[in-house]
Amino acid sequence: MDASKMEHLHKFEILNRLPDKLLHEVRDYLFFRKYRKGQCLFMEGDPRDRIYFSLNGYIKLTNTNTEGIPTLYIFVKPYSMFPYVGLFEDSHYKFSAEAVTDVEILYMTTEPLERILQRSNAALTHLVRIISQRLFDHEYRLQILTHTHAPQRVHQLLSFLMYDLGEKTAENTITIPCPLTTQELADMAGTSRETVSHLLQDYRNQGKLEFLSKIITIHDPDFFKM
After folding, report:
1. CB 158 within 8 A of CB 208
2. Residue-wise pLDDT tens digits, 146-193
3. Sheet of 209-212: strands edge to edge?
4. Residue 1: which pLDDT band, with cuts at 50, 70 and 90?
5. Cα separation, 212 vs 199, whole angstroms
6. Are the C-beta atoms of residues 95 and 79 closer than 8 Å to each other?
7. Are the CB atoms for 48 and 93 separated by under 8 Å?
8. Residue 178, pLDDT score
């Protein structure tokens, strides 16, 4: 393993809680891999035999209903571990993972990581906090996105994306660097692509955002705050 890749481990919030001895054990199990845009890392229902650590690029997690239609999107940004859901319990993945851009990742088999985490109270405590917060966020977002009108859902979705993925690029300007299509935005908001396109055009005309080459730039973050 390239030593330069290992220098990034402290940027992962779970691994950062491990004492040096356990972090060195993690390094013994890690492998490096690149995925091209559009490649699948794993499919919903596959054996949950690996845990991933994203170094760069963006990854989309989706699960589907009985008709095969995506019902939940989660975007993974750099320096994130995934999936959290199912640690210590599930035998199969509950999501499919697809590279939205070219990505570089570290990965290790699940059993050694779970065994190492169980030996660190600090890492376990932090893991419980993360999972609890994410469950709360997902429940809140599902409630918002299923009990409001389409324009409100799109507005809230942009707020969530700004919060999750946004990067400050200038004074009072935030860019969402993960490329997103209007169809993906429509699927996430539970509305039509035409509705999303119309609302995005309205926001552009108002000077609230720009949407160019699948990249959203927020010019008025306060307008989209939750």
Report:
1. no
2. 667 889 889 989 999 999 999 998 888 999 999 999 999 998 888 899
3. 167-170, 173-176, 215-218, 209-212
4. low
5. 15
6. no
7. yes
8. 95
- List of residues 6+ apart from 151 with CB closer than 8 A: 195, 199
The amino acid sitting at 19 is: P
pLDDT in tens, 83-105: 887 788 888 998 899 999 999 99
Buried b (16+ CB within 10 A) or exposed e, 132-142: eeeeeeeeebe
Give the tokens for residue 24. 């060195």
Q: Are 224 and 176 in contact (CB under 8 A)?
A: no
Structure tokens at 55: 């170094």
**Which domains can be identified in the chain, with CATH numbers?**
3-130 (2.60.120.10), 148-224 (1.10.10.10)
Spatial distance between the Cα atoms of 17 and 85, rounded to a whole number of angstroms: 19
List the structure tokens of 109.
């088999």
Q: Are 9 and 15 spatial neighbours (Cβ–Cβ below 8 Å)?
A: yes
